[in-house]
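Hi, here's the filled form for the chain we discussed.

Project: internal
Contact: R.S.
Residues: 81
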Amino acid sequence: MPHRAALFSIALALVAAACGSRPTVLPRPEARHAADSAPPPPPARWLPLIGEYGGDSSVHILLENSGGLYLHTTAGEWPLL
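And the returned structure, exactly as it came back:
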């Protein structure tokens, strides 16, 4: 897991660099996909990064949405790539 922790540190550094920007509001999933079709899978190189980080009181989530990698916190959601 040290590799995952290093990747999370990099993601947090990217977010810190973009702190002056406002959180991104993502479109609702049902607006992008028909109810009976699944969205495409995220790029394989992102799969090791996607997940929850931090403790119970401060969870950070790295997720893929509409082809972009995002960091989700209680303060909002920011694009990373």
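Let me know if anything looks off before we file it.
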